Q: What sequence folds into this?
């Protein structure tokens, strides 16, 4: 094997490239249409503000992210969430209320935390305390939605006031469709292994040793980088370039193979002006192809049409012995349709949700709330437009100038897609109205930044793991082809890194067998 091409320069693609370079003497090329490493991980800095445009931290208890940071010489730059704010607030009855002590997304860990919370009525507390006596589900059942699971085990009030808002802050998903087996496997296993979430959480705490009680989220287990999350992919890309990895700014076209079995990857120069498509003989619009070139093809996975539309503006071609495809699933579908139509159909069936992040900076004296938490989540039942508000400058140092605070307002998601598509002016107005109510922010903000992530979050719907198993099986059958990224087995940064590393291992294993 002489040449491996990685399509996609996000964390999965970069991690795959790193693992291949470390283990094999072959050329590696990374094709990234934006020309910027890191995918959705991006940081903006100006006038003393440091704004994370998407993820602001990663889970330290998984090894992949921490080990990468150490390999890159970034250990001294890792920063944990300020211990004074390691808790979550939940909006309830017109005020911010701490999540119950000991409650971790779905698992109650302390009786006093449940008895003392004003988030639940007496009846709601009793229903939650009765969870150990709820019969377990048929062990033959392989999946269930988050909503179904939480209603069955914890009751409607706990679901609506605790589980739904906390889960929305992680997945921006529809809980009636979100897969327990794919998104919450640890909690799903608790019922089977221990008979209840209460028993499962106590067993987990015993195994882990006594520590600070969780309050809605494991904030003590998250870390960031002092100069922003984008330092991680940028440093990794620089290291890879020093090791001889070629970075190519272009969009990849539909994959093909020559008679010898080598992969042929057409390249489209970023920003290429497209010719008229009136004579291409397809129903594809010129705008559809422009969207595909920008990596946003939607449900456009009919590769025969795409191949025809691409004719005339392909400006190069790579040849490779193996390909790692580390782009969103709908984009991957467009790449492999001519190779395996069934695989393309399964990839295209993975839905994505979008959101918008409005970052606002204020003078400290213009925000009434003490910002004594990592942030606040808002139940859908509360009728507000914000999904959550992250208190960025309270969580991490160096996020705002002296005397100022920075908050990030999240809107949109699977249940409210229209809000994320509002104009910039309307989004700013909405965000200011929300923070005025939620944290008492008044006056003109000193900083406003709007970041839109349309179709950026893969949705792990019930049955997701079965689909992923089919995708992986068909991918193995192709040979010299591996998929990686957030669409399959985890959306967190460590899981995405692990996905890229697993893809590299598969490529290297195939090389050894060959």
A:
């Amino acid at each position: 094997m002489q040449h491996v091409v990685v399509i996609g320069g996000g964390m999965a693609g970069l991690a795959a490239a790193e693992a291949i370079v470390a283990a094999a003497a072959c050329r590696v090329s990374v094709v990234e249409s934006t020309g910027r490493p890191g995918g959705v991980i991006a940081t903006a800095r100006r006038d003393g503000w440091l704004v994370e445009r998407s993820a602001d931290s990663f889970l330290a208890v998984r090894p992949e992210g921490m080990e990468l940071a150490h390999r890159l010489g970034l250990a001294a730059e890792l920063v944990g969430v300020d211990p004074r704010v390691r808790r979550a607030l939940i909006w309830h009855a017109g005020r911010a209320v701490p999540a119950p002590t000991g409650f971790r997304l779905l698992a109650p860990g302390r009786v006093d935390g449940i008895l003392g919370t004003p988030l639940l009525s007496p009846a709601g507390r009793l229903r939650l305390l009765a969870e150990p006596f709820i019969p377990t589900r048929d062990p033959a059942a392989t999946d269930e939605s988050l909503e179904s699971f939480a209603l069955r085990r914890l009751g409607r009030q706990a679901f609506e006031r605790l589980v739904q808002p906390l889960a929305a802050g992680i997945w921006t998903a529809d809980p009636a469709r979100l897969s327990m087996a794919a998104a919450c496997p640890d909690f799903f296993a608790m019922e089977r292994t221990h008979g209840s979430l209460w028993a499962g959480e106590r067993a987990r705490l015993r195994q882990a040793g006594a520590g600070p009680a969780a309050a809605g989220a494991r904030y003590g287990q998250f870390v960031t980088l002092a100069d922003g999350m984008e330092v991680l992919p940028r440093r990794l890309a620089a290291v890879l370039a020093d090791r001889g990895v070629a970075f190519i700014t272009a969009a990849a076209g539909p994959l093909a193979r020559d008679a010898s079995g080598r992969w042929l990857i057409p390249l489209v120069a970023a920003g290429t002006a497209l010719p008229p498509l009136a004579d291409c003989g397809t129903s594809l619009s010129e705008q559809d192809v422009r969207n595909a070139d920008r990596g946003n093809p939607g449900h456009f996975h009919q590769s025969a049409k795409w191949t025809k539309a691409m004719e005339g503006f392909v400006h190069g071609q790579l040849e490779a012995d193996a390909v790692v495809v580390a782009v969103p699933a709908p984009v991957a579908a467009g790449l492999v349709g001519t190779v395996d139509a069934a695989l393309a159909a399964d990839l295209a069936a993975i839905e994505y949700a979008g959101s918008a992040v409005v970052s606002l900076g204020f003078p400290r004296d213009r925000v009434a709330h003490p910002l004594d938490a990592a942030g606040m989540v808002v139940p859908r039942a509360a009728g507000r437009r914000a999904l959550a508000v992250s208190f960025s400058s309270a969580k991490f140092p160096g996020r705002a100038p002296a005397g100022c605070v920075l908050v990030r307002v999240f809107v949109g998601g699977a249940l409210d897609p229209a809000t994320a598509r509002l104009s910039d002016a309307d989004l700013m107005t909405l965000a200011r109205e929300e923070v005025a109510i939620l944290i008492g922010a008044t006056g003109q903000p000193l900083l406003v930044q709007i970041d839109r992530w349309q179709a950026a979050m893969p949705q792990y719907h019930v049955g997701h793991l079965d689909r992923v198993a089919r995708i992986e099986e068909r991918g193995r059958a192709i040979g010299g082809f591996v998929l990686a990224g957030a669409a399959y087995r985890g959306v967190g940064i460590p899981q995405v890194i692990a996905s890229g590393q697993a893809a590299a291992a598969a490529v290297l294993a195939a090389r050894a067998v060959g």
Summary: The mean pLDDT is 89.
